[in-house]
Each structure stands twice: as structure tokens, then as C-alpha cells.
Amino acid sequence: MAIEKLVVYNTLTRKKEVFEPIHAPFVGMYVCGPTVYGEGHLGHARSAITFDIVFRYLQHLKYQVRYVRNITDVGHLEHDADDGEDKIAKKAKLDKVEPMEIVQRYTEYYHDALRKLNVLPPSIEPTASGHIPEQIRMVEEILSSGYAYENEGSVYFNVEKFTGDKHKYGHLSGRILEDLVSGTRNLDGQQSKKSSLDFALWKLASPEHIMKWDSPWGKGFPGWHLECSAMSTKYLGETFDIHGGGMDLMFPHHECEIAQSVAANKKEPAKYWLHNNMITINGQKMGKSLGNFITLNELFAGKHSLLEQAYSPMTVRFFILQAQYRSTLDFSNDGLKAAYKAYRKIMNGLKMLNSLEYTEVVAEQDAALNTEIEKIISDCYKGMSDDFNTAIAIASLFNLIKKINVFYLKQKSTSVLSKETFESMKANYTALVYDVLGLVDEVAIDPEGLIKGLLELYKEAKENKQYDKVDQIRMYFKQQGLAIKDMKHGIDWAYEE
Q1: Which of 238, 241, 234, 268 is nearest to 25 (CA)?
Q2: Domain boundaries, given as residue ranges, for the chain
Q3: 105-111 LR contacts (CB < 8 Å, sep 24+)
Q4: Check: CATH 3.40.50.620 for 16-276?
Q5: pLDDT classification of 335: cutoffs 50, 70, 90
Q6: Is the pLDDT of residue 181 over 70?
Q7: Span 367-392, mean pLDDT?
Q8: Which DSSP string corresponds to 429-456?
Q9: Is the CB of residue 63 less than 8 Å from the CB of residue 27?
Q10: Residues 6+ positions from 7 with CB-CB distance below 8 Å
Q11: What is the rounded CA–CA span in Å between residue 128 and residue 75?
Q12: DSSP track, 145-175
């Protein structure tokens, strides 16, 4: 079966384009990771799952992908500003610990949540603090190009000079420079800048600042935008295939990245820019001040005032996959409950499919049914190849389940299919569920409840002198490394010794 050419929506050009890697079959992809000063939340999950799907599908199409996703552990100031406290340093002061203890703690939380969501680890996961020399070198390159200036130990990017030389600033986000200037005239607290548009490449550290490094301009720390430019260049080259991240990073973060890379490397960093949309909570933007900020661990445990129950990681993953990544996704309890049912239906489809065997008998094949099944499989891939539209792929899988059910219920023999169609149905359904969508089977079984039920049956069989059943139940327990304990005061179980 021929798979459609992959088409991606490029934020840079505002249109869908056929995906043509710079050095096929190799693909370089950089995605902005979290600033690790708090627990992972729903927004983190959407971005991580979105680019996990991109990573998985490219690999499924036999591309060799180097996927780089960073950890921001220094330089990200409050409110994404150029002045104020570092988010991690502030949290370290509150908790009375070292900043790197905060980084370690929340990086582990982030990784643990992503493992539960079955998000594949990236090929490389660099940290900002581990690449200070590379960032300093990039600042020196930008200064040499004439698009930065140093003032009292801080270095700023000169946006107006950059645009005055016919370079584009604002074209990724669609911002117009004149509007940006008129909207940001207040330079309060930013007197060291020539213009309010200029952004920090390197900041002079105050004496009380915890995380700081030696540089040609004095002790300081890198600006937040710089790390991604330096690390993507190091691991993927000056121009690579895909740069991804949340829509909230488009401006100023990604806009600044482009400007830095053009100034330092004389070329734009990425060929395709992909941005996932946000998750809203009951129609509102998620935020701590609104009381609707839900961490992933709260979601998995059901411990939040907005949650009616706990939701498993696969339920959350499926909920996110039900919408195309560029569309808004509104969180609700009803939506998550529906996602849980739909996820179970997909997994039941897999269970039914695995129980089927092809019957090779001389029988008249159903040409129409063969064609229908082949078209449904093709529709799954059409959806995935149309800008990673998981919503269409999942809808097509549901259509395939209807066909699988016909054979599972013995309404038709598998012999009405050609062997090729049967094997294609089995292989592609399995690959799409496990390898592309990244769903895994969550066994939602209470073992204590099952054991208790079996012990009740054991007691009943013993009282009725049904010794064959008694032996059978004992054998079931033994196969699981368990033993039934018959005692004067009752029946219990224990691990076999």
C-alpha cells in the first residue's frame, strides 16, 4: 500500500507544504522543552505528545530522526522578561535549596510523567547550563556581525538595526515592527537597552544572583532565547528540518531564535516551524491565578477540585490525540470520560484482531469488503500524512473495528478476504495503535478483587464437595505463584514459599 506524501503546516509560510528533508532520509528536529521549576501540567503534555507523534510517524516512514528537546535550567526570567528573577533561582530560594536541586527534582517529575504517557525520550536532551561556552561563542558571533551591543556587562540584540538591514523580525509570528514599537515604549527597568524591542543575549548578574558564569563581559548568565539557538546549532547544524513548540512560544521566543541564528550563522535555523495549540479548561486559558491549573500527577490521582475522578495516562494521551495538534483542545471531565471509553474501544479492537486467524479455504472472496478494508487503512495514513492529523486516523481506526467485529462475531469467515488484505489489516492496525499513536494496554484490573472473588468460588466449591473445581482454582493460584490457605477461622491466600 502506497502511503501519501507527508504534508506539514509550516507556521513560517502560513501554508501546508510537502515535507522534503534537507538531507533525506535524515531528519533533524528541535523542540523546546520545559523550564523545570514546577510539576508538569496539561500544557506540557500536549506539546510532548504532539512532537512524540511527529517523531514516531517520521520513524514509521523510515526516516532517521535526530530529535533534540532541551531542558531550560537557567536564564528564563519571570514573565519571559529580560529583568527580574530567574524562575528556578526563585523557587530554590523559596524551598531553601540549591537551584540544581530544583532542576533535578522537577526534571525527574517531568520524565516520570512522560514515561507514564508513553512519550519516547528524545535522541538528545541538552540543558542550558551544560552549554554556557556554546552560548558565549554565539553572543560573540552576533556582536561581530554588528547586531548586538554591550552595556555595563549585559549584551542585547539590536532589533531595529537587524530589521534596518532588511532582515525579517516578526515574520514567524506575523507581528509588524511598527506595532511592536508603539506597544512597548515603556522602558522602565530596562534603561540599559537602546530600544524596548531589544532582547538580552547575556545578562550581568547582580551580587545576590545565584547562577552565574564568567564571560568576556563579566559574571552573568545567558538570555532565555539564546540556549535553543546555541544547542540546535550544535546538535543539528546551522539549518535543520523541523523546529517545534507550543504556540505560546512563537513570540517572542521563536522569533528571537530566528534573529539570533540569522545574525550568528547568516541563515535561518529551521525549514519547517510546527506549533501545537493550547489546552483550555472549560473554555478558559489555564493559569494558577484562575485556580484551573492542573498538574499531570493531580490528573492521574484525581486530586484537584475540577476533577470528578482520576484519569489514567492513556486516557489523557488519547484525549489529546482526538484533536489535530493545531486546533484548540478544551479540557472537561466529560471529554476525558469519553476519551477513556474510546481508548478502550481501540484496545478491544486490537484484542479481537489478535484472536483472528486466516482461514485458507477455497471460497469466493468478497471483493467489495477487501476494497473497503484497504481504503480504511489508506484513510488512516492519509490522516497521519495530512499534517499528523491523529483525529482522522483515529476515526478511520473506528471504521476498521466495525470490519474486525464482523470476523470476531463469526458473521463472516476471514477466508472472504485475500491473505494480503487480512495481513495488512492486522499489521497496520497494530502498527498504528502501538507505534504511531503510542497507545499501550493499561490493565485496569483490581487483583485483590479478583483474588477475593476466586476465594469465594473456592469456598463455595469446597462446601458443595466439587473437588475438581477446588483443585482447578488451587492450580490457578499456583500458576501465579500464590497459595490458598485453609484455616479453621477462614480461607486466605499467601505467596508460595
Answers
A1: 241
A2: 16-276, 284-436, 447-495
A3: 106/34, 106/36, 106/37, 106/38, 106/39, 107/36, 107/71, 107/73, 109/39, 109/40, 109/297, 110/34, 110/36, 110/39, 110/40, 110/44
A4: yes
A5: very high
A6: no
A7: 97
A8: HHIIIIIIS---------HHHHHHHHHH
A9: yes
A10: 16, 17, 18, 19, 385, 386, 387
A11: 8
A12: HTSEEEETTEEEE-HHHHHHTT--SSTTTT-
Specify the pLDDT at position 191: 66
Tell me how crowded residue 302 is: count the other CB atoms within 10 A of its CB. 11
What confidence score (pLDDT) does residue 84 get? 86
Q: Which residues pair with 26 in a beta bridge?
A: 23, 64
Answer whether CATH 3.40.710 is correct for domain 284-436. no
Cα separation values, 103 from 67, 72, 169, 403, 416, Å: 22, 9, 32, 50, 59
Q: Which helix (H) or strand (E) holds 124?
A: none
Q: Are 31 and 43 in contact (CB under 8 A)?
A: no
Percent of the chain exceeding pLDDT 70 equals: 96
The residue with greater pLDDT, 200 or 80, is 200
Q: What are 121-140's pLDDT values in tens digits?
A: 999 999 999 999 999 999 99
11 secondary structure, DSSP code: T
The CA dihedral of 262, 264, 270, 271, to the nearest 10 degrees, is 50
DSSP characters over 269-306:
SEEEEEEE--EEETTEE--GGGT---BHHHHHHT-STT
Distinct helix (H) and strand (E) counts, the chain: 16, 15
The C-alpha cell 466495525 sits at: 402
Is residue 362 over pLDDT 70?
A: no
Sign, CA torsion 215/221/226/229 = positive
* pLDDT digits 0-9 by tens, 21-31: 999 999 999 99
- Cα separation of 290 and 94, whole Å? 22
Q: Residue 161: its pLDDT value, please?
A: 95
pLDDT at 149: 98
Nearest to 240 by CA among 124, 388, 387, 107: 124
Average pLDDT across the chain, whole number: 93
Residues 20 and 18: their CA atoms lie apart, in Å, by 6
Let me know: does 99 contact 87? Beta carbons within 8 Å.
no
pLDDT at 444 > cutoff 80: no
* Burial of residue 493, with CB atoms counted within 10 A of its CB: 0-12 exposed, 13-18 middle, 19 or more buried: middle
Decide if pLDDT at 182 tops 60.
Answer: no
**Percent of the chain topping pLDDT 90:** 82
| Cell numbers at 477, concatenated | 493460584
